[in-house]
């Protein structure tokens, strides 16, 4: 048995007494990530040899809840420029370094 698209979900619950996250998932990309982070699931459900749902216990620091980052056009342009130069924002430094090798 596999879960339909409508039934595939991931549920996270924080246990404030134990200070751990408990995750249940029937969504394959999350199952793979949870297994990679926390190991084999507790009480897995199988379809043949494939895990189709399970429960995992995660450390408190394994889950982060963050606000979406909204960039201005200027910030996007600055990031694109940094990426195009490989993160080197000072092009003249490379030229100066080449001159020092010859001394």
SSE string, helix = H, strand = E?
A: EEHEEHH
Helix content: 25-40%
Shape: elongated
How many helices in DSSP terms? 3
Helix-and-strand structural type: alpha+beta
Task: Supply the number of structural domains.
Answer: 1
Please indicate the percent range of residues in DSSP E strands (runs of 2 or more): 25-35%
Low-confidence segments: none
Query: If you compute it from the alpha carbons, what radius of gyration comes out, rounded to the nearest whole angstrom?
Result: 23 Å
First-residue to last-residue Cα separation: 72 Å
Number of strands: 4
Strand order in space, largest sheet:
1-2-4-3
Return the average pLDDT rounded to an integer: 88
Largest β sheet strand count, sense and barrel closure? 4 strands, antiparallel
What's the topology here?
Blueprint: E1 10-15, E2 20-25, H1 28-38, E3 42-47, E4 50-59, H2 73-84, H3 91-101
Output the keywords:
103 residues; alpha+beta; four-stranded antiparallel β-sheet; 3 helices; 4 strands; 33% helix; elongated
Describe the structure.
The chain is an alpha+beta fold and about 100 residues long. It has one domain. It is about 35% helix and about 25% strand. The protein has 3 helices and 4 strands; from the N terminus they run E-E-H-E-E-H-H. It has helices spanning about 30-40, 75-85, 90-100; strands spanning about 10-15, 20-25, 40-45, 50-60. It has a 4-stranded antiparallel β-sheet, covered by helices on one side. Strand 1 (about 10-15) and strand 2 (about 20-25) form a beta hairpin. The radius of gyration is 23 Å and the shape is elongated. The termini are far apart. The relative contact order is 0.13.
